[in-house]
Design goal:
Shape: globular
Number of domains: 1
Structural class: alpha+beta
Helix content: 40-55%
Mean pLDDT: 88
Pfam family, one: DCC1-like
Protein name: DUF393 domain-containing protein
InterPro entries: DCC1-like
Largest sheet: 4 strands, mixed
Strand content: 5-15%
GO molecular function, one term: protein-disulfide reductase activity
Distance between the termini: 47 Å
Strand order of the largest sheet: 2-1-3-4
Radius of gyration: 14 Å
Length: 131
Amino acid sequence: MDNGPVTATFLYDGDCSFCSSCVRFIERFIPTRATITPWQFADLDVLGVTEAAATDAVQWVEPGRPVLAGPVAIARLLRTSPRRVWRPAGMLLGLRPVTWLAWPVYRWVARNRHRLPGGTAACAVRPPATS
């Protein structure tokens, strides 16, 4: 079990009201030892995360481990919560078959977050620029 101290950073899109609402839920109901911060205020170079990766999905950065993104990052956050009730959900979400199914759902939510509760037009993900 992951119940030791965690010195990790969970990055999210601070410009998105939907993402900020989700983070408020996490901060209220899912205690974590990780630092939760908008990627816009983080030193991405120090964390080893590109801006493209940070805009694409939430990121979990933990020293000595690969950077995790999207539902895998959320699974890690849940597994490291000191409140044991969240650990089984994190373990389940971290299983490969579940993660494979979670990615399309995560992508759908990311594409439609401006339409979801708490979302605003500013939450809309812009398509990548083409040359």
